[in-house]
Structures are given as C-alpha cells and as structure tokens.
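Please, structure for the following, as tokens.
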Amino acid sequence: MKVIPRRQAEVYTVTNAPRPMSEDIGYRQRRYLISMGIRTGCFVGSVIAAMAGAPLWIVGLMVAGALFLPYISVIFANGGREPTETARYSDPDSEHHKPISGQRPEIGS
C-alpha cells in the first residue's frame, strides 16, 4: 500500500489581507478632494491677493499652486493601493508564544 503524504494547508491570517477596495478608493477620493480644495483656495487667494495689491511673488506662487496641484493630485490619486503592513509573529520557541487553540498533538492536528 502506497502512503500519500499529507500536504500542509496554507494558512491565511486576517492581518495579511489587503485593505478592501472600497476603503482604498474612499481614501484616495478624500485625498484628491482635499488637494482640489487647496487648489481652489490657491486660485481664489491669488485673485484676492492680486486685487489687494499683494507682492507679485505671492500671487505667482498661488497661481503656480493652482496650475500644478491638479497634475500632482491625479498622480497621487491614481498611484495605486497603499501598502499594508505585514503581520509579525513571535518566534514559536519563545516563552511568549501561545499555542494555537484547537491543536491536539496527540491526534496529529
């Protein structure tokens, strides 16, 4: 009789699971909207500063922000999913390691 070795089941932990896509999209949308709010503030601020007679370099800085923030915002919003931290486990031989509940060495589980 031929004995077939048992394969070890691959164990997945919740901490290794990536962030849900809906949560990731929501995070990127909020980040994009905040950036666009800053852009709008730069544009309105440059108009108000120009009308108030502010130095030209301040107006130019605000206009540059209003011009380049959309490009930067799109790059960051489409940058992909954020990296997630991987799980870190203690060494199984350490004194702080707790056995997995439900394992019964006497029956080979």
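The mean pLDDT is 75. The radius of gyration is 27 Å.
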